[in-house]
Design brief:
This protein is an alpha+beta fold. The chain is built from two helices and nine strands; from the N terminus they run αβαββββββββ. The strands form three sheets. Strands 4, 5, 6, 8 and 9 form a five-stranded mixed sheet that branches. β5 and β6 form a beta hairpin.
């Protein structure tokens, strides 16, 4: 028998079982409702129509956008103890993607990337992955990592400095 026939039989059997269960529970006497204190938690109240529930889909141009912002976390302490700095970050009102150049300024919703500077170095690197920063091989002692949120032409829109100490 072909595999698709077996899948159909399993699905059909599951449907029959669900229908039989539904019919048997409809005919069965109902138990009294549990007291209010023991009731299961209720689902959150529905959101009013037109009220946003999450950021807009990144596939539709937006008529206006709030200013972008950069949010950073302190490095994970467990990793610092191993000499590894793992810094999580995220952008609000900007999608981090590896797209560069003036033509990308017209993309909506807004896109950009980050610049990373370690310990005030005269150089930085650009990253468009959106993944946490992982710095390894830093000497013991205090360090600063500046993270700049930049548009596709490398203009800095927001900046945060993360300070930590490698033991």
């Amino acid at each position: 028998m072909p595999l698709s026939a077996n899948v159909f039989r399993v699905l059909a059997s599951a449907s029959v079982l669900a229908l039989a269960t539904a019919c048997s529970t409809e005919a069965a006497p109902t138990a009294p409702a549990p007291p209010a204190a023991a009731a299961a938690p209720t689902a959150p109240a529905p959101v009013a129509l037109g009220e946003p529930t999450w950021p807009p889909a990144p596939v539709v141009p937006l008529p206006s956008q709030p200013a972008p912002a950069l949010i950073t976390d302190a490095p994970l302490p467990e990793q610092l103890a191993k000499g590894l700095a793992v810094i999580r970050y995220r952008a609000e009102n900007l999608r981090i993607v590896p797209v560069y150049g003036p033509a990308a300024l017209d993309v909506s919703p807004r896109i950009g990337h980050i610049h990373v500077t370690v310990d005030g170095a005269p150089w930085h690197w650009a990253d468009g992955s959106g993944e946490p920063l992982i710095l390894q091989g830093l000497p013991s002692g205090p360090h600063q990592v500046r993270i700049d949120l930049a548009d596709p032409t490398h203009m800095v829109l927001d900046s945060k400095t993360v300070e930590f100490t490698i033991p």
